[in-house]
Amino acid sequence: MAKKRSVRDALRLPASGTLLDPDARPVGPGSKAAAARDLAATGERLAALQEALFAEGARSVLLVLQGMDTSGKGGTIKHVCGLVNPQGLRIASFKKPTPAERRHHFLWRVRRALPGPGLVGVFDRSHYEDVLVARVNSLVPRRVWAGRYAEINEFEAELTAAGTTLVKCFLHISAEEQAERLVARLKNPAKHWKYNPADLDARARWSDYQAAYADALTRCSTPDAPWYVVPADRKWYRNWAVGHLLLETLKDLDPQPPAATFDVKAELARLT
Amino acid sequence: MAKKRSVRDALRLPASGTLLDPDARPVGPGSKAAAARDLAATGERLAALQEALFAEGARSVLLVLQGMDTSGKGGTIKHVCGLVNPQGLRIASFKKPTPAERRHHFLWRVRRALPGPGLVGVFDRSHYEDVLVARVNSLVPRRVWAGRYAEINEFEAELTAAGTTLVKCFLHISAEEQAERLVARLKNPAKHWKYNPADLDARARWSDYQAAYADALTRCSTPDAPWYVVPADRKWYRNWAVGHLLLETLKDLDPQPPAATFDVKAELARLT
Description:
2 copies of one chain form a homodimer.
Chain A: H1 7-11, H2 32-56, E1 60-67, H3 73-79, E2 89-93, H4 99-102, H5 108-111, E3 120-124, H6 133-136, H7 142-161, E4 164-172, H8 175-187, H9 198-204, H10 206-219, E5 227-231, H11 235-253, H12 264-271
Parallel strand pairs in A: 1-3, 1-4, 2-3, 4-5
Helix pairs in contact in A: 2-11
């Protein structure tokens, strides 16, 4: 029997830089119901591996979520990261930098939010904003943002060397799907708090953002820290895919709880 | 029909300071199966209320978990806090203070770990360690720890005034149940990483710890920030109880997503 194609192989950005379509399904279940069943089982395996990573207490995983507004960064955290023990997660959201953050190097706030040993870090947006919105809105001169791709690659190589495995996911939605989701938000008063008129400004620069994403993904996809393109027009496929990218990553790490450093029999004797 | 007794009323430390038994069940389901069914439904209500608290973005809840080793602080986080969106949680574990932490006031590290507006904070151990282990092991002179009860009450009054509702839970287990859980840990190599021979040193001072807990609970149970005694010899009852303490607290807060500050129709027109 042929070896099943891994989700990482199917979704990894190819050398050509060509992106999968937002509604592609190159691997995985064919229906929402099948994906939901699979995700529940995946959750149990993820939770067990995360507990082993925590017990081992040596290495870490960093899930980076990027994507246009409504692409489902928050939904992925809720539905995928919500499957594991929250104590083993370190979630950081990178919003518009504060004045204090702007006075520092762009990686300063990112370094402060890295997961410690044993943890799964989750970045809701990330240092990539500094080559996305910063570029599209000319927040810094071209020579500054243009130099950041190399800085990011160096930074990520340093993280990898220190024992952090990066899982970088571009949640790829179409402009049409975004419009539908924004309209749905506007039509539901309970979701108004999630809506910001500035979202439409970013939407108005759609092709500039797509170009900025294409460059960021291509220039910063390295063998140790590749980008995965997650088709995100279907929420259930997005969740399934990110769950499996994490699962495959954790299985490869094969974390092992450390052996006892005490005399088990002697401790049992103290107790009984 | 008589109003059902709230879980908070049933578990709140009485003025007398008398603790419930570790296997008491003064309120709630009578069986593990009934509790499991209930907890799943509770999880959905908790998740919805937490989302509203997050959307409102003004107030916060702080769940403080204290208890002897193996009392289930970690298990409560996994099974109860694991029911809600991890993005709305801020979990902090207070281990033995680092040298840097020891150079500061005992509340320094606690203040740095408080939940921001909209979040549910969870303390796995807390500032109460500074009147528990610090007292039992004479880590500081008596006059120092004795003064901390008043400091804690002032600190918590300040938090309450700033919009944080505290839910302080003493996970109360018996010495016999602790022995069983420690033996189970020792007999399972996969759980050895959770075992520390120093746990037995604390166990050897069981009655000193119970006295220190009794004082901490009595002196720091205030109308706005009462202590709840959660019988914890049964894990399912402990999870059920903490879930409902949180649920009742969030229901009382009745968080409301803020109204739109933009013109909904105009935004819809921009999109369609």
